[in-house]
Specification:
Residues 1-20 form the signal peptide. This protein is mainly β. It has a single domain, classed as AOC barrel-like (Beta Barrel), CATH 2.40.480. 10% of the residues lie in helices and 45% in strands. The protein is built from one helix and nine strands, in the order H-E-E-E-E-E-E-E-E-E. The longest helix has 18 residues, at 2-19. The protein binds 2-acetamido-2-deoxy-beta-D-glucopyranose (2 copies).
Length: 186
């Protein structure tokens, strides 16, 4: 029994090592077709609509603030599927959606942690995504957040987004934010 097992093990060992995937290996760029491609730098501009009011909000509170400071809403979490449009008007051309969430992360100022995927639907970028993770002190005139990656045409993406509030309603809390996204990708 034991010898049978040993024989089996001996026969299988080369098989396991050759066909089994090793944990990591060095890859030639050619194998992903990256040797042919120049890394590009692109600038995307669009408007992000945080619609919290009305019958069809795109942004909804899913966690209530802690109550530690009502003016910063520390602890609040909103889940979003915010439209991204070419112009500031919500009914202008839709180029994608920002899917993710933002959370209020300060007890002393209004600052959000934002985690979003820009699911682009425009032109050849349809189906590709850009991922943002950053800090957004919303009342600053200009904010910056990192592009930490992407998928599809945005594989290996890195860069940053500059944002400015285009319009904000203190009564409804709806906001339109201009995004300028600078991204290196293949
Ligand atoms: C609450 O937030 C405001 C800013 O919105 C800040 O000025 C104030 O110091 C904060 N209060 C406390 C107790 O942290
Ligand atoms: C994007 O791709 C999806 C799925 O392939 C397709 O249904 C949709 O019509 C495309 N959108 C645009 C704007 O091309």
């Amino acid at each position: 029994m034991f010898t049978q097992f040993l024989i089996l093990l001996l026969f299988c060992t080369p098989f396991i090592t050759t066909s089994g995937h090793s944990f990591v290996r060095r890859l030639d760029r050619k194998m992903l077709g990256l040797d042919q491609k120049q890394e590009k730098l692109s600038h995307f501009r669009f408007y992000w609509h945080d619609v919290v009011s009305g019958p069809n909000p795109s942004s909804m509170q899913v966690v209530s603030p802690t109550g530690l400071n009502s003016s910063t809403a520390f602890g609040l979490v909103n889940m979003i599927e915010n439209p991204l449009t070419l112009e500031p008007q919500l009914n202008s051309k839709l180029v994608g959606k920002a899917q993710g969430f933002y959370a209020s992360t300060s007890k002393t100022e209004v600052t959000l942690l934002m985690a979003m995927n820009f699911a682009i639907t425009e032109g050849k970028y349809n189906g590709s995504t850009i991922t943002i993770l950053g800090r957004n002190p919303v009342f600053n005139k200009e904010r910056e957040m990192p592009v930490i990656g992407g998928s599809g045409l945005f594989r290996f993406a890195r860069g940053y987004a500059k944002l400015r509030t285009h319009w904000f309603s203190p009564t409804t809390k709806d906001a339109i934010v201009e995004y300028n996204v600078f991204v290196f990708h293949y």
